[in-house]
Amino acid sequence: FPGPFTDVVTTNLKLRNPSDRKVCFKVKTTAPRRYCVRPNSGIIDPGSSVIVSVMLQPFDYDPNEKSKHKFMVQTTYAPPNISDMEAVWKEAKPDELMDSKLRCVFEMPNENDKMNDIDASKPAPVLNTSKQDGPMPKSHSVSLNDTETRKLVEECKRLQAEIMKLTDENRHLRDEGLRLRKVAHSDKSGSPTALALRDNGSNSLPSLLVVIAAIFIGFFLGKFIL
């Protein structure tokens, strides 16, 4: 299972029946609360394959802790006219059961890169090739969504800071306009034309800042929706 383990990590297990008889299978684990297996049991027709998705639930990874989690794939030949799968396993004799054991390995991304460099010339394992037959793991899309969400949150914070800055500047300009209007009224030597120009200049600046703030908000909302 490749890390990080902040989201669900899915690994596909391919089970193939090379015999000429139907085979019943069951997947067991030593840590049932840590994993979700779909399907965890079933029947494989002769010469057919089944993809089993093993989903590791999120947890706090400790590189110093050795993994003791194991899986066991138990199989037996299917009797004719199967009606109850539970009865098949209960009535199966020990010498009729076959099993394969697997040990779980947790790897962080830097460890995966080293393994890929070493095994670049080796053929791909069966578990990797089975991904073409089964559904793609969801962990990659979830990680991308999380990364995109973090970018949008950072962009939102930046735009909010810009809006607050523009609001403060707008308030400052409004106060400055009021002060200029008071000065203009108290200035007897000032002409009506000059007073009108001051009023228009002070009113146009807040309107321009409001337009700029609206453009920032529209840009953020459009990027978030897309």
TrEMBL record:
Keywords: Acetylation, Cell junction, Cell membrane, Coiled coil, Disulfide bond, Endoplasmic reticulum, Membrane, Phosphoprotein, Tight junction, Transmembrane, Transmembrane helix. One of its GO terms (cellular component) is bicellular tight junction. Residues 113-144 are annotated as: Disordered. It comes from the Eukaryota. One of its GO terms (molecular function) is FFAT motif binding. The keyword Cytoplasm does not apply. InterPro entries: Ig-like_fold, MSP_dom, PapD-like_sf, VAP. The keyword tRNA processing does not apply. Residues 149-176 form a coiled coil. The chain crosses the membrane at residues 205-225. GO terms for biological process: neuron projection development. Pfam families: Motile_Sperm (PF00635). It is a single-pass type IV membrane protein. Residues 1-107 form the MSP domain. It is found in: Cell junction, Tight junction; Cell membrane; Endoplasmic reticulum membrane. Belongs to the VAMP-associated protein (VAP) (TC 9.B.17) family. Endoplasmic reticulum (ER)-anchored protein that mediates the formation of contact sites between the ER and endosomes via interaction with FFAT motif-containing proteins such as STARD3 or WDR44. STARD3-VAPA interaction enables cholesterol transfer from the ER to endosomes. Via interaction with WDR44 participates in neosynthesized protein export. In addition, recruited to the plasma membrane through OSBPL3 binding. The OSBPL3-VAPA complex stimulates RRAS signaling which in turn attenuates integrin beta-1 (ITGB1) activation at the cell surface. With OSBPL3, may regulate ER morphology. This is Vesicle-associated membrane protein-associated protein A. It comes from Ardeotis kori. The lineage of its organism: Eukaryota, Metazoa, Chordata, Craniata, Vertebrata.
